[in-house]
Amino acid sequence: MPLTPELVQELNLLVKFPMHSDMEGIKVNHDASSEMISAAQRLYDKGLVTQPDGGYLTSSGHQALEHAKSALRILSGKVNV
User: Fold this and answer.
1) Do residues 36 and 9 lie in contact, with contact meaning Cβ atoms separated by under 8 Å?
2) Which of the 8 DSSP states describes residue 27?
């Protein structure tokens, strides 16, 4: 499956969430880019965040974030072998 621009936008937003705390989230403000607002809505529709404008990660969102950050570490060459 190729990465569409929409998936890239969702990943870019997802990796902005903090991994270390369930009590921290993000809010995509109304003056953010339309792409970022749409990405937040799509993450919400997929059940990865708690609010259409961000909020907190769900348990599925935490899993997605862990996998996304792992993939970024691997692709950026920051993996210890």
Assistant:
1) yes
2) E
